Amino acid sequence: MNTYEVSVTTDLAFAEVDGRTLLADLYRPAMEEPPPVVVYVHGGGWAVGSRSDSAQTRLAPLAAHGLAVLSIDYRLVDVAHFPAQLHDVKAAVRWLRTSAQDLDVVAERVGIWGASAGAVLASLVALTAGSTEPGGPADNEYAHSSAVQAVVAWFGLSDLTATTTRSPLEAELVPPGPEAGFLGVGSRAQVTEVRDLARQASPLTWVSAEAPPFLIAHGDRDRMVPLSESQSLHDALVRVGARSSLLVVGGAGHEDPAFDSAATLALTAGFLLGTLRGTTR
To answer: Domain boundaries in the chain?
Structure first.
């Protein structure tokens, strides 16, 4: 696979929401022809993180394979809760299509790639295309679609109902995870009362045969998000006839450096390039 030098354009404003400007950085390989593009959604439990996370270890190295990477910010839980983050990521995809000529990228077919909390958002963007997802209008009410044509989901949750719903005793004894903040749950007792919202925020809920191709990756030593979460999403996609590949990274934990290895990034880039160019089956 050829590698290219990468230029970075920072602080691209893609949306204004609730008085906040949401920004993105574009990593573009030095190619004569406009490259295909993937939107990257960072992790951090929806509470921390930035579009510049892993810039030199993950984003630029993937772009060097000949694929532009648009790394985006989204509202964190200190200012907004689900589904605000989903709407922010969809807005980024629509803006990308609007701005493709100025950015010198090909955006008829767009990929999306997320890690951890970002993998949940990336999967939801892919799986809710064309539907009226929680709190938002359908794509046909916008000039450009938020549909994506390839998905990479690294070590993300697939069923938030399993991690948020607890008995009263568990709610008192076990601290709530990051999903509680994502759903806007302020106390342990409330965690037991958000099952319907957790269902809407779960990628498993939205799986259908119309899903775009997925590449799902997870470490088998992940102590924060069980491997079973990715396995469940993969199995559900395959069951309905959608395309999905599951990569289990042996010995890797959550956000393990193994995911930024040359081999894993090359595999990820190959999947995205092949799918976005329509050269894989």
So the answer is: 6-159+209-276, 161-201
